[in-house]
Amino acid sequence: MQVNGKELAVEVTGEGPAVLLVHGLGGTSNFFQPQVAALAERFTVIRPDLEGAGRSPVVGELSVDGHADDLAAILDGLGVDSARVVGHSMGTLVVRRLAAKHPDKVTHLALLGAVNAPGEAGQKAQRDRAATVREKGQIAIADAVMTNATSEATRRDHPAAAAFVRELVLRQDPEGYARNCLALAGATDPGPIDPSVALLLLTGDEDKVGPPEASKALADAHGSAVVEYFDGCGHWTAVEKPAEVTDHLLEFF
């Protein structure tokens, strides 16, 4: 699909009100595959690969704001006035910017493993990671991401889910991934979430990337959010707790 002068991979499945699913750093549209069948029975499910991720090539420098503008353009290109929007990890920053810059386009906001804009240490970590993959490729980080961002229970009891996380990271284009690392390093706080937007926050009790306290702070600031913490779950929420995430999204929407 042509979006803001570049080609982005966008999958559209099902019929009904629109649901926009936005992956995070190291993810692709396939991150949400466990939820698609159930959602598509009631909704039009829209899944892009953000620029530089998955099947969407990297064209220029990347930013959270730029990704948000791309999402708005995707909805416009599909003739969608407004959508229920889901974001994961870095995608939670992107969809929060979408809601802030294009408030008419977002009716519901579901954040999985919500993260804050990184501080100085986080910025350095993302710049270092970008340098690593540019020098050594994705193989240099895939095992560490899988181990650090999934729970012990997932790796022990659901090794195929952990392997899928590793494969998502491993198959990224190193330059696209590096530029998305730099986009995350340059991210700023999207600001408060409008209380008029329905808000759902889902995270794992073992999430080290988007820890439960980050979701709690967003919920407290919003005032009427629904929050759920999954036991034995790390950061890759939709893959580690697929049935639970699906059920919560269906109920919320």
What does this structure look like?
This protein has helices at residues 33-40, 64-77, 90-101, 120-136, 142-149, 152-157, 159-170, 174-185, 212-222, 237-240, 242-252; strands at 2-3, 6-7, 10-13, 18-22, 44-48, 83-88, 106-112, 198-204, 226-230. It has 253 residues and is of the alpha/beta class. The protein has one domain (2-252): Rossmann fold (3-Layer(aba) Sandwich), CATH 3.40.50. The protein has a 7-stranded mixed β-sheet, with helices on both faces. The protein has a two-stranded antiparallel sheet with strand order 1-2. Helix 1 (33-40) packs parallel to helix 11. The radius of gyration is 16 Å and the shape is globular.
Any descriptors?
253 residues, Rossmann fold, single chain, alpha/beta, 7-stranded mixed beta sheet, two-stranded antiparallel sheet, globular, 45% helix
